[in-house]
Amino acid sequence: MRLAFAAGAVVGLLAPAVGFFLVQRQMSLIGDGIGHVAFAGVAAGYLLDVSPVATALVASLAGAVTIEWLRARRITAGDQALALVFYTGIAGGVVLVSLAGALDVNLLAFLFGSILTVTRMDVVVIVVLGLAGLATIGLLYRALSATVLDEEGARVAGIPVAFLNVVVAALAALTVALSMRVVGILLIAALMVLPVIAATRVAWSMASTIVIAMAIGLVSVFAGLTAAYYGDLPPGGMIVLVAAAAFALLTVAGTLRRT
Amino acid sequence: MPLAVELRALSFAYPHGQTVLRDVDLAIAHGEFVAVAGPNGGGKTTLLRVALGLERPTQGEALLFGEPAHASSHRATIGYLAQRARLGVDAPATVREVVSAGRLAASGLLGPLRRRDRAIVAEAIGRVGLEAVADAPLRTLSGGMQQRAFIAKALAGEPSLLVLDEPTTGVDVEAQDALAALLDRLHRELGVTVLYVSHEFGAVERFVQRLVLVRSSIVFDGPPAQLPGVWHDPSHVHV
């Protein structure tokens, strides 16, 4: 259980921090798209008999960079790029799972989260890579937020906007791959997005939005895991329900404050 | 000293589209205050995008400070105010956060702003008279105040060229007058080159040294006093 909380804490902080930049760029659903590619990665792991987390990370990175590349080159509109990768990922995953004969309980653990079965090695990987992701956001916070604020202005000023956009896409891929065991592929996008849109209801600045969102992410993971443990409920589902409740609560609080 | 902006025999067409700009020659020297206007669809925003290196000319050259615009090493000294509709995030960005974003190119990408950079941001906020609301979310301010915050963002980079694209969109007449007076003051105090692009000359006409009228090509380039009367409203330009 302690392992579960350690991994959950990192995921609870990282997912909303990355989600903040996705929501500001109106790409809230990219986490879902990458999640579906991660599913294909997990299936490939089973087929090749290597760590599904490693193959999911590779697949997620490839999917995220492809979405960003299609969007930046204006080959497709942003939502079309997402749809293309989304459906290709899920279709590839279904075929690979069938080939690997892996449609079993283990696979369901990746889809919906099964944090209580994480190993010490899983936790080490999640904590190390998760902290690296958070450190990257800390170092590049000004650059990333200035770019979402005014992408064209940043481009005119010679800021490497394309590179920064790839960094955000790569962070999103990293988050999906690390969070699979905690909230599951199908629900990770919710943990990236719900805390952020909840935070905007009461925040007073961009900085306070990201800090409040990370706090909501952390509380959601801890409360969701605790409820899942004692109630024998799926952790991913409980975590996301807590985040959704936070959104409802803060919406009411924000409305009351303005009246 | 090379010209701030120079377009030489420049033409531009979008792929598989019609020609938007044809044989444009334009030279803007350091320290000039120039307004570019033209009817909607006349190519003025395209002219601006090519001049800033955001689009490459089909023919001819676009130079910024004497270097090809798309690869100019002086880009960090351009303060750019995009059309307001293109700005904005869901999060409640404060005036200080927006203005700080304009300091990014000068301060480097990594880590927090240093004390000197924070002082320059505060000075830019002061220059546009928004000290009292520096930590207020931008979306709680009037259209005119938001526009001043974006000008402060452009100033935070200590620009030698200030470029404004349709800065009066969604701003009432009174605030447009105040904006024009503010630009005039900044131009005089800082010696910054100002390139103002809009569908009409409006309130800046009495402050600028040159007016440029664009309708596919440049149909007028000279001091305001020489502009034919009917063309003071650019929608009347038919050539």
Q: Could you characterize what this model shows?
A:
- The complex is a heterodimer of chains A (259) and B (239).
- The model of chain A has no long low-confidence stretch (mean pLDDT 86).
- Chain A has helices at residues 2-24, 30-48, 52-72, 78-100, 105-112, 120-149, 151-156, 161-179, 188-199, 206-231, 235-258.
- Chain A has 259 residues and is mostly helical.
- Chain A has a single domain, classed as ABC transporter involved in vitamin B12 uptake, BtuC (Orthogonal Bundle).
- Chain A is globular, with a radius of gyration of 18 Å.
- The relative contact order of chain A is 0.18.
- Chain A is built from eleven helices and no strands.
- By secondary structure, chain B is α/β, with parallel strands linked by helices.
- Chain B folds into two domains: 1-74 and 161-172 and 191-239, Rossmann fold, CATH 3.40.50; 80-159, no CATH class.
- Chain B has helices at residues 44-51, 95-101, 104-107, 115-127, 143-155, 173-190; strands at 5-13, 19-28, 33-37, 59-64, 67-68, 78-81, 161-165, 193-198, 210-215, 217-222.
- In chain B, strands 6-7-8-3-9-10 form a six-stranded mixed beta sheet, sandwiched between helices.
- In chain B, helix 2 packs across helix 4, helix 4 (115-127) crosses helix 5 (143-155) and helix 5 (143-155) runs parallel beside helix 6.
- Chain B is globular and about 45 Å long.
- Chain A binds chain B through residues 20, 23-24, 139-140, 142-143, 145-146, 148-150, 152-160, 197, 200, 203-207, 209-210, and chain B through 52-54, 75-76, 78, 80-82, 86-94, 97-98, 100-102, 104-105, 107, 109-113, 135, 137, 153-154, 157, 163.
